[in-house]
Design goal:
Layout (H helix, E strand, L loop, with lengths): L8 E5 L5 H13 L2 E6 L7 H13 L2 E4 L5 E3 L4 E7 L12 H7 L3 E6 L3 E4 L5 H9 L8 E3 L11 H7 L3 E4 L12 H9 L3 E4 H4 L11
Parallel strand pairs: 1-2, 2-3, 7-8, 8-9, 9-10
Antiparallel strand pairs: 4-5, 5-6, 6-7
Helix pairs in contact: 1-2
């Protein structure tokens, strides 16, 4: 952000309170003026999550708990729609704590005149199925790939509904989880979706130009 001469962050979004999604926010909140923090309200006893709650209260940063169906305008021509999780929170059949947290990730659709983005957090197959069953508009030009490209996410039915031109996988280089999984990559290839990966390509930036 400093490299790009960004000195203020209007909105910070916490998709769900797990350490790999929390830890980096600490540095952002401590080093930049932040207008608002958005979260789903799915809570945790993770020390970093408790720190975040305390920090926003101390700094008087607005904390918004976003619910499914909420529409938020972000400047001229940019609209955000919350698609997930529902209230009460989604309870996957698997029932493992990590699965429950992942599948209650905040999922946002961002509509701009030239581009539609779908930001999916760490939802897995059951979270994707919940979105499909809800009959929501999922079609997007750019997809933030669910759950780092894990094997249990990015189902064929989900990709056919979203129909993205591009997809971005956020995964660390040589990460111990084996993300992205080769079967997941094959599903994207079968749909003709161009995939960018942070483990291979580094930081990925999409820039909109007037008239583009």
């Amino acid at each position: 952000l400093w490299y790009r001469w960004i000195r203020r962050v209007d909105v910070v979004v916490l998709t769900h309170p797990q350490f790999d999604h929390l830890a980096g926010l600490k540095a952002v909140l401590e080093n930049f003026p932040v207008g608002e923090v958005w979260e789903s309200g799915y809570s945790s006893y993770d020390p970093t999550y408790l720190w975040l709650q305390s920090f926003v209260r101390e700094k008087q940063i607005r904390l918004r708990r976003i619910t499914r169906g909420e529409h938020i305008a972000l400047g001229p021509g940019v609209a955000v729609t919350a698609l997930h999780p529902p209230r009460p929170f989604f309870i996957p059949r698997k029932g493992r704590p990590t699965t429950v947290a992942n599948n209650n990730s905040l999922v946002l659709r961002i509509d701009q005149q030239q581009l539609r983005l779908l930001l999916t957090g760490d939802i897995e197959g059951e979270g994707e199925a919940s979105l499909l069953d809800a009959g929501l508009t999922l079609e997007a030009d750019l997809l933030k790939v669910p759950h780092h490209g894990s094997r249990g996410a990015s189902s064929t039915s989900f990709l056919r509904e979203v129909r993205p031109r591009w997809a971005v996988i956020q995964a660390g280089d040589r990460n111990p989880f084996g993300h992205p999984h080769h079967e997941t990559l094959a599903r994207y290839a079968a749909q003709g979706i161009q995939v960018f990966r942070t483990d291979r390509d580094g930081a990925v930036t999409f820039a909109l130009r007037d008239g583009a």
